[in-house]
Specification:
single chain, about 180 residues, alpha/beta, Alpha/beta knot, seven-stranded parallel beta sheet, 7 strands
Length: about 180
C-alpha cells in the first residue's frame, strides 16, 4: 500500500468545482461562535459537493484568517449566504422548496442511520450553536430532526464533527453510484 500523490487524487480546480453537479443540500449554521468550526464546515461541504452554506446570526463570515485556517480555500469553492437570523434562512429555504431538518436531540427525532433522503430532493440541515444546540424556537419551523446516535456519557459532539458525520451519511448514496 502506498499513499496517493496529489496528482492521483483528481482534485477539482475552483472552476471545476463551481461547474460540478452539487448535492442538493444546504447547511444552515445557527449562531456558531467559533471561526474554526465555520472553516471546518466549509471544508467538509467542499468535500461532499454541498450546494451552499447559510451563515446565520452572529456566525462569522469569510473572509477571515481564522476561518481560512481550517477551510483551506473552501470559502472560494462553496457558495454561502448570510442571514440576520436562522428563522429568515428557514423561511427563504422553504419558499425554495427545501425540506428543513435540524440536527438535534429532540422528541420524535429520526436516528441518522434511519434517515432516508432522496438525492433528487432539496434538503437543508441546521447545525446548532456549540453550547445551546439548535435554538428550540426553530424546531417547530422544521420538517423534522435528525439525531446522531451516541453511546457514551456526553451525548454531545463538536459541531464540525457532527457536520462531517451527517453530511457523509446524507451524501453516502452518491459514492455508491
Amino acid at each position: 500500500m502506498r499513499k496517493l500523490s496529489m496528482d492521483e487524487l483528481g482534485r477539482k480546480s475552483v472552476a471545476e468545482f463551481k461547474q460540478a453537479e452539487k448535492n442538493k443540500v444546504i447547511v444552515v449554521l445557527d449562531n456558531i461562535r467559533s471561526m474554526h468550526n465555520v472553516g471546518s464546515v466549509f471544508r467538509t461541504s467542499d468535500a461532499f459537493l454541498i450546494e451552499a452554506i447559510c451563515l446565520c446570526g452572529y456566525t462569522p463570515q469569510p473572509p477571515h484568517r481564522d476561518i481560512h485556517k481550517t477551510a483551506l480555500g473552501a470559502t472560494e469553492t462553496v457558495d454561502w449566504l448570510y442571514y440576520d437570523s436562522t428563522k429568515d434562512a428557514i423561511n427563504d429555504l422553504k419558499q425554495r422548496d427545501y425540506k428543513i431538518f435540524a440536527v438535534e436531540q429532540a422528541a420524535g427525532s429520526v436516528s441518522l442511520e434511519n434517515f432516508n433522503w432522496q438525492p433528487s430532493s432539496k434538503l437543508a440541515v441546521i447545525m446548532g450553536n456549540e453550547v445551546e444546540g439548535v435554538d428550540a424556537d426553530l424546531l417547530p419551523l422544521c420538517d423534522g430532526c435528525i439525531e446522531i446516535p451516541q453511546l457514551g456519557m456526553k451525548h454531545s459532539l463538536n459541531i464540525s464533527v457532527a457536520a462531517g458525520i451527517v453530511l457523509w451519511k446524507i451524501c453516502e448514496a452518491r459514492f455508491k453510484q
